[in-house]
Amino acid sequence: MDNNNNIPAAEKIEQEKLTFIEDFKRRLRQTKTTRWIRFAVVSLLFCGFVVWIGNPWIAIAWLLLLDIYITAYIPWGWWKKTKGPVRAVMAWVDAIIYALVLVYLIFAFIGQNYKIPSSSLEKSLLVGDYLWVSKVLYGPRVPQTPLHFPLAQHTMPVVGGKSYIEKPQLAYHRLPGLRSIERGDIVVFNYPQGDTVLTARPNEDYYMIINQMRQEGIDNPAEYIAMNPAKFGKVIYRPVDRRENYVKRCVGLPGEWLEIRNDTIYINDKAIADADNVQYNYIIPVKAIIPAEQWESIGVRHEDCGDIPLQLEYVPFRFYDVPLTAEAKKIVESWPQVDGKLIREADSGLFNIGGVYPYREAYAWTRNNISKFWIPKRGVTLELTLNNLPLYRRCVEVYEGNKVEVKNGKILINGADNPYYTFKYDYYWMEGDNRDRSLDSRYWGFVPEDHIVGSPMVVLTSFDEEKGVFDPKKYRWNRTLANPNPDKSKAAEKNWK
Description:
There is one protein chain. This protein has 497 residues and is an alpha+beta fold. The protein contains 15 helices and 20 strands. It has helices spanning 9-16, 20-30, 33-53, 62-71, 85-109, 206-215, 221-226, 229-232, 292-297, 302-305, 326-333, 345-348, 389-399, 441-444, 490-496; strands at residues 111-115, 129-134, 186-190, 196-198, 235-237, 245-252, 257-261, 264-267, 270-271, 280-285, 319-324, 343-344, 369-374, 381-383, 404-407, 410-413, 420-422, 427-431, 447-448, 452-462. The chain has a 7-stranded antiparallel beta sheet. Strands 9-8-7-13 form a 4-stranded antiparallel beta sheet, with no helix packed on it. Strand 7 (257-261) and strand 8 (264-267) form a beta hairpin. It is globular. It starts with 8 loop residues before the first helix and ends with a helix. 27% of the residues are buried.
């Protein structure tokens, strides 16, 4: 890349006497025609990229291209003049850097592979599925945290520590997509309540921990956490696009009214059918242990059923508490070990099914019964009241960056006594197909559009994590290149609209 290679010493001395402008013109004259052609092609592609991104500040990077291809003030190819191990090592470094840049661009604007870590979408998606998620479908989101390692979400592998540099932070901007989110889509998004994380408990929801502490009578949970670093670790903040990735099914769209009555979802007062693979937890009274092989025959994970039935002091019988599809429920009812009628966990009264968003006792909501509410839509104005503020405050304050206060019974937004607020984002309501074992919108509320990552297009491969390495059932051959959303058929799509 250096245009000044093999220049005699006397000529170099003369060049040092040149002014910057004179030296710049000399470098332009000495550039070969082939390099000018390559530079022109790369410049056109880069200009198109800047226009597509819609951020003119990125155009500054064109100066680097000018130096790489034409002026060569920075000795980019210095290592090519060396010999021995330095040259060999730098050749590898050069190739790795090019590969990382390519991976960065593909992952940012085209798609990315993701692994399913939990059973919240069983049986549509299984634990151990590796997905290819398209970012083109809804439009690729321009990286809000542009300086990050492309192969890590927020933590560097092996060495630990942040995999990103917090500044600069770019404003949310999404490029045109093929279509918008539809009901029934399986969507990958950044965890909405993942902005605040406790380093000693990174897999737990900070806000749920705060709420639990309040219920236990701790007046100032944030202060309590700060005073107990050994138990909670440090409190850290993560930018939107560096938060954990979640995957759920979209059941509620912007501007719709949603209600849940006894697990049935109503959209604008009309019931929508469950996906075929939706599961609910059932209390299964038994008179004998059900072997693992029997559970496995209907696709129940060992993690979901356990080795032996449960025995509680306040329950006069032994039972399993297991998620089942409608089809699996019929099979279990015929098993000889079953001793009585199967009961929905939510109807059994054995467990607390409250503690859902927005964590207010006055709402009296549970995971299977949530009163009718409106899903915010971009450009629509809503009157905030003391009654609905708990439901929408996080949208207005955290996701859209406003200051919300309540003084003398009045709601102030950015200091102004005006409770009418116009939303700048679309919001979505997401739920898992494994309804009673899914941490979803019922527990953390709405998903803003700037958190949307993409939608899975295909299952690349799948491994059963409960099987040993040499178990022939470890690799799920039938999942390779499978449809990740079989329930969104044409018939289901019509039924859900």
